[in-house]
Every structure is written in C-alpha cells, then in structure tokens.
Amino acid sequence: MLSVERNPKNRVYQELIDLCFEVCDEFHLVIRTDMGAIKDLEEIINMFKASLKEMRSESTWASTTLGDNQTANVYYFYADGNAKSIIKMIAKSLFQWEMPNLPEDLSFFKQGKVWLATSSHEKQCFIFPENETEASKIMGIEGLRVEELDD
Q1: CB 147 within 8 A of CB 3
Q2: What is the pLDDT of residue 68?
Q3: Strand partners, 117
Q4: pTM listed for this prediction
Q5: Under a CB-based contact definition with an 8 Å cutoff, are residues 151 and 6 in contact?
Q6: Confidence class of residue 83 from pLDDT cuts 50, 70 and 90?
C-alpha cells in the first residue's frame, strides 16, 4: 500500500488520473447528505451522465464509514474517456474533490477492488497496486510523493 504524502496538483494530478483510468474500470464520487447542499450538484452529476453506472445510498465507501445510521449518495461511474476528460477538466488537484464545491472522495476500483481511495477532508489518499508494474508506474510520476506502508 502506498500513501500519497502531498496533494497531487496540476501536471502530477493529470498524470495520476491518466494512470487511474489506464488501470481501473470504475470510480466513485460521494455526496454527503449530512453536510448540506452542494453547489451546482445537478450540473456536475449531469456532466457524468453518460458514464453513470449507478447511485447507491450507503454508509460505507472506499475511504469512509459513517456512524449513527447516516448515509451518503455514492455515485459509481465507468472509467471511460468521457469521465476522464471531465475529471481532468473540473479539478486541478486530487483533494479539490471536496464538498461543498465538488462531490468528494474520488476513488478508483479495479475489477471491484479499491485501487485508489481518497478522503478529501482528511487530505489522505492510499493506492493499492496489485503488482510491480503498477507500483512502478505510480512511482514513475515525477513529483508524486508517496510512501510505502505495510499492509
């Protein structure tokens, strides 16, 4: 497991997103209903409409478990070219995916398993490469600061 030590911004963010879309087949974004309204929610979700797989009301997602029977709207999307261009256009850094300005906790999945999990409010991101090739590609992103952690 790798811990991202600094918010990937600009070119580093773009390259990380490119790699996520190369490796993964799905991602999610979260709308926390306990944190008030999100600006332009309808417009942002509609931008991804062609890539939307499903929306589920859940208390647990890639990076968070809510207590007290709270739930959030978790939007699952196909990791396709349409979604990739939108993600790269809307935000310039990974931790920018935070309410109230954007849906939060952008996280990626490879064949149903978490590959990259982000908790935007906590400024945390963990990557779970499955093999040396994936780990090498992550480490090859110039400027991406990661630390290897024991699983």
Answers
A1: yes
A2: 86
A3: 126
A4: 0.93
A5: no
A6: very high
Q: What are phi and psi of 95, to 5 degrees?
A: -80, 0
Cβ neighbors of 116 (< 8 A, separation 6 or more) are 20, 24, 107, 108, 125, 126, 127, 128
In this prediction, residues 67-77 reach a mean pLDDT of 90
- Give one DSSP letter per residue of the chain, joined into a string: -EEE-S--BHHHHHHHHHHHHHH-SEEEEEEEGGG-PPTTHHHHHHHTGGGEEEEEEESEETTEE--TT--EEEEEEE--HHHHHHHHHH-SBGGG--TTTS-EEEEEEETTEEEEEEETTTTEEEE--SSHHHHHHHHTSTT--EEE---
Q: What is the pLDDT of residues 100-118, one digit of tens each?
A: 889 999 999 999 999 999 9
